[in-house]
Each structure stands twice: as C-alpha cells, then as structure tokens.
Amino acid sequence: MSEYPELDRLVDGIRRRSDDAFTDVYTLTSGGLASFAYSMLRDRRLAEDAVQQAFLELVRSAHTIKGDGRSLRAWLFKSVRFNCLDEIRRRSRRPESLMAEAPDSSVVADELELTEIDPVLERALAELTERQRTLIALRHVVGLSGAEVATVMEMTRPAAYAATERAERRLRKLIEGVESNGSATSPSMKKVEDKR
Amino acid sequence: MSGRNAGIAERMQGAFAINVSDAAASRHQANISEAIRSVDVVAPSRIPRWRMRVPALVAATVVVLPIGAALAAESATPGDVLYPVKRIVEPAVAIFNEDIIAAHRVDELARIVGDPVEFDRIPAAVSDARDAVSTLPPGHELRTEFRAIADRVGRRNAQDRPTTDVPQDEDRSPVDGQSRPAEPYVPPAPDPTEDGRRGDGDVPHTSVPDTTVPGTTDTTVVRHDVPPATSDTRPPPVDEAPRDEPSPVRDHDGSFGDTTTDGTTRPRTDR
User: A117-196 maps to which CATH number?
Assistant: First the structure.
C-alpha cells in the first residue's frame, strides 16, 4: 500500500482497462499532470493535450503497468514529461516563417486565459536548464517526493536529491539577484525582458 | 518542504498550478473511453519472454551448428575430433566437385607425412588416398601428387632400415632395439601411368613405413600394404633420400634415430 491508497485500488482496474478506473484516475491526477505540463510548455492548451496523450498511452500500455498507485502516478508523470519534451523539440524545429504566421500572443492569451507569471520568477527560471526547471516543477508545483522525482526523471535517488538541491539553490540565488538588482544580468534574462 | 524552499514552492504553485478545464476534461474522458473500446484487447501472454525465444534459439542452433562444424572440419586430418564430420559431409560436396574426396585424402596424407607426430596414421592415410585417387583418370594431377608423396614415404622407410652395424639377417625394432626376424623390403612402385611402363591406369601399391604401437613396448613391427616385389623396381639409393628430414621413427625417449656418417638416419642400437 503506497501513500496514494485511492490510486492503489484503481491500478487493477487500469490493468483491465476499466472505463470507470480510467475516469477516476484522470480525476485524481489530471490537475497535477496539467500543472507540470504547463510549467514545461507555458501553454495551457498544449499542456492539456499532453495530459490527454499520456492517458491514451496508458490505455495502450495498461497491461504492462506494474506496482501500486505510486508507480502508476510516476508512469503518468514520466509520460507527460516525454510528451512535453517532444513538443519542445517540435517547437525548436518549427521554421521561423511559421512562427511569424502564428496569431498574436496577446489574442491567444485572452482565448486560453493564460496565467500571468510572476516576472521575477520567469526571469529566474529562464536562467535554469530544462532539466533544472523540470526538477523544480516536479518538486514544488506537483509536490512529488524525492523518490518519485527520481523515478520520473530516471535518475538514482541520491542523484535526484542532489540535482534538485542544486536547482533550488540556483533558483533562490537568481530570484534574490533579480529582486535586488531589478534588471537582467545575463543574455537570457535580457531576452526575457525584451519579450516583455 | 524546508522553510527556505517555501518561497519557491509558493511562487511556483502560484505561477503554474492549473486545473484542466471542464470542457477539456469531458473531451479527454470521451477520447479515453473511445480508445479503450477500440484498442485491440490482446490478453497478455502468460509465457515468459525467455521461453518464447527458445524455439528461435533452437532453430538458430540447428542451422548454425552443422554449418559451423562442416566449415571447421574442412582442414581436419585423421584422428581429429572433427574428422568424422568431414567424412560425412564429403559425399554431399562431391556432388558438385567429383575430385574433392581424392583431393582431401591426398592433402591429409601430405600433412600427416610432414608431421612426425602423426607417424602411426600414415599407413591408413596412404591406403585411403590410394583408394581415392584410383577413381581419378590416368594422368590426373592428384595421382602425380599422390605418387610423389608415396615415393617420399617409401624413401623415408628405406632410410629407417638398419645399416652397417646391424646384422643383415635381423631387423631391429626402432622402439627398443630388440632383434626380430628380417622381412624382405619392397620399395614403392612408380606410377605406371606416369612413366609409361604400364598403361593400365592402376595406382601402384606403395610401401609404407613400419610402425609400432605408440606408448607401448610392443616390439612387433607392422608392415602395411607391402606388395610383391617386381623385377623392375628397386629401392631407391639411400644417398638420394633427403637428408634434412628427420626420421619419423622415434625411440622411447622421443628422439629420432642416430645419424650415421653418410648422413642417413638409423634407429639407435645401443640399448
């Protein structure tokens, strides 16, 4: 029995591809999954698509799911992470011409009700690596334990703890720097400021 | 969550914590239900994965092992572990190459003759090779090669005969030097198809060296395939024998015979 007793009870139903079990698991986990995806993609619609994609993959791989509710939760987060990384890669490959034809971001923001992100946090996060941002999101947005973070990131537990600790320390320092200086100090920070 | 990270958690959750909208959630759940219905429900196999690979492994073994053994046996000589495999495979190969069997026998004989350790296998190898080349047409190069090897064996046999310090009516065992009754020595007959003296195409009988049972003190000398003497054949002169080759006959201590003043080798007689 794991720290997620409700999920523990649903794992067997997931393996049997029970419709009710999938509905219940979606209800229990979709919020955390969507928040995690949103932290990586900064796009609510794409974040929701990543969550749906993870559940569709779970339908296909249901019979391979092993362990308890904790394992199922880690499986879903891992799947969402890979979907987000795929999307980030797709974005980076997209030609500039297509980017130019994209609708105005303010219009999109209105349509999708994008949350306005704390500018200090946004500038500090821009300084972190993709991996560090993911570790921070898993730990502080979703609230996964160190062991769960290790599973999702496919790292050993000590390595996950150490990497998360380093990312937190760096983020704290960056936030303090931005708050005290009030201006960007590195090229990536300037880029964030220019966009604003 | 430690106190120093509380600020980070608060900021991160404030920025990124969202919920899937009701519309999106309904759409997702409908799509998931549709996927559950449409997915091919294949019962997971209860056979362990390693057991599913067994037939493939067996099939690969059945195919690969015989081919590998046949290839490895290509250079086997009589007495080798793989030599029976070579003999089994030969008839199949001979369908495509009629001379292959004779070529193998002559090649084996050449290699055995060149290796003093294989001394005791020479008679059987000569016999096999003679049988094999007898199926070839007169003048075939394998016949010539066989005759050359047979001559060489015959000369070596002549070299190993006792010389001046051994009584003429006795032969001494190369193993222990004990006397035994002498036997008439008959040299190898030349290939009549090559020198024109006989044209019947028969492969001549060839004298092969005397052998003893290795590892024993049995002094019995076995003479193989000694054909009756003919008037036109004579043993080749001892002086014509190649002097750089050691005698294949060994003493108990593993050494070859004594070298006489004229350069020939004879068995030791000082024991």
Answer: 1.10.10.10
